[in-house]
Amino acid sequence: MIYLAYVFWVTREYSRMRPRIVPYFALKHFRTHKPSQATTEASQRALRSGFGIAADLLRLDESARQLGVPPLSSFGFGDDLLRQPPQWTEPAGGLRTLTALISNMCDVVSNTTITDLKTLLAALEKHGRLRINSR
């Protein structure tokens, strides 16, 4: 009986693990005590979302190319656990891409994806004002 409960728990927890795309910043906010660089609510929301972006990434990348902006997948997405080196970029490129996608994708992708894009945009705008590089 305990084994079945364990299998059920593992299956339930595994089903909750879905891929997502979140911002990654050079400055780790939990390591700084400067109030101007404290983690914002926008950043916290961006770190808890990103499921829609991951689900629609191929469609978003193709649309970005058609709109003449860099695709989202060109901004890094290295895996720290695999020790892949980061490719840092200025937030302005991501802001340009996100703004173009939000303006042109409302009828093409889910509301979850649009919400994720807007959440990511808000986090990058905050970090852009702080002049922090992101990937």
Protein architecture, described:
- The protein is mainly alpha-helical.
- The chain has one domain.
- Helix 2 crosses helix 6, helix 4 packs across helix 5 and helix 5 packs antiparallel against helix 6.
- The longest helix is centred in the last third of the chain and has 19 residues.
- It starts with a helix and ends in a 6-residue tail after the last helix.
Integer count of domains: 1
Q: Can you tell me the residue ranges where pLDDT is under 50 for at least 5 consecutive residues?
A: none
Shape: globular
Q: Rg to the nearest angstrom?
A: 17 Å
Give the topology string: H per helix, E per strand: HHHHHH
Alpha-carbon distance between the two ends: 47 Å
Percent range for β-strand residues: under 5%
Oligomer: single chain
Overall pLDDT score: 76
Number of strands: 0
Number of helices: 6
Question: How would you sum up this structure in a few lines?
Answer:
The chain is mostly helical and 135 residues long. It is 53% helix and 0% strand.
What's the topology here?
Blueprint (H helix, E strand, L loop, with lengths): L1 H15 L24 H8 L2 H5 L1 H11 L23 H14 L6 H19 L6
